[in-house]
Fold each of these.
Amino acid sequence: MSRSPSQGLRPQLAMMQPNDRSLIPAGMSAILPETASRVRRLEETLLASLDRWGYQEIIPPTFEYLDVLSAGLEPKVIEQCYTFPDRTTGRILLLRPDVTAQIARIVAMGMVESTRPLRLCYRTTVFRYEPEHVGREREIFQVGAELIGADDVAMDAEIIALMIDCLMRLGLSSFKISVGHVGFFQALLARSGMSAEGQKRAEHAAARKDLPRLAEILSKEQVPAKAAKAILEAPGLYGRQEVLDRGRVLAAGDRGLRATLQRLTDVYELLNAAGLGEYLLMDLGEFRGFDYYDGLVFDVFAEGIGCELGGGGRYNHLIGRFGRHLPSTGFAFDVDRLFRVIERVEDGLSRAQADFFIVSPVQHSDRVFRVAQMLRDGGFRAIQGTLHAAGPAGLQRALEEGRLLVASTVVVLGVPGVAAEEALVLAESSLRRRRSGSTTPTQRKVKIKDLPGLPVKN
């Protein structure tokens, strides 16, 4: 199936006519088999990396009570929730809109006695209502990690290094992680004398890098010229060591500003010493889309994708909203966006394939079941089929089916001249000759017990 990289996980939508799209809810879609297989391998690669770092998987519930989870959600997110009444209690339920808030609730209400720091990971789906015209999905596939119960430079560096490791395990190298500290820009705003409402509007403008809007807000708030100049400069400070140096000039003698810069500097130096500095860029105007972030924050970007692949940061006060104060940090990947990037790299995830495609005449189907199970028990991917015709025509059709399945080896059982303990093997080289025009595939007999020892394409 052909697919444009920009189509991501949902290629079938591009093939539908506008009227056909009304058959499924906007922002939702089925993921077809070949793509689903590749997505699962992507997720498994990420989870394997997280497991190597000691992060344990957690599976949060699909529904939550609105009156419980809302303590960890900002009003804008609550407005985007899908809600409905619980038929048993009458209380309002919501489809999970954010996993971090769920994990905060789970930890505060059920894991407070666990050994800390907790290292948790997940793969799940979040649901948020988005107007159809904005072009965003309403069903978002995520894989993420949370590091709970520690607040120090080493933990900030660990979560960023873990994100880098995940991306590298996927075969990506052309990416950058933009790292900032929400406290720096907030402190700049606070010392300017702005109102609380004005500060919030300014934060939103800075997050979008909308400097004209930011200048308009500062003017309405009557911010002094010198303070306004520093505020307007900060969102454009994006780079490496020179950004930190300029930040210290803007901070002057402000202790709060200098403290945020020192935290950024310490994390940057630690990651740089670990050989990861090439992936980092400092951004003094960096913000995340959730208000619970209150410390170091970061987003990851890659060439060819005009939006972040994921991100995260420190949220030291979120778990406290559910009754237990625990400093924490974490990140999440948008799987759809990661998938689109991987399709662009030359050594991306390979197409779904079978190690063995096993066929026989229908009267010998029991042999196919036994042999396929033996191979699966040995860790191979085996697909069963039926030999639809006798003689060369049947073998050629089996080869064609194997080619469509991208099978490494085609195995034929129960045909004349092949004993019960034997198999007729058509290897990958035969498939290639078939595609090049050869009409006489290479065949050889092997003992069924020797099939697991045959070379297969990885």
Amino acid sequence: MNTILFSLLAIVSLMVFMNLGKIRASKKQTDRDDRINWFRSRKPNFYQKRDGSKIIEGEAEEVDDQSNK
């Protein structure tokens, strides 16, 4: 009896899952500016060249060397 009940429950839940999978998000939800980028690279923002030096991606800024005098 339990086997029949749980198999019916599994079949019904699969049918509900398959029918809900057809629902798509609206344009208002998919074309937002603050949307999370789920497929971005999980690598750090620097990489190592063959000679061992590390390059950090970002903006460059000038450093004032007045503190060493």
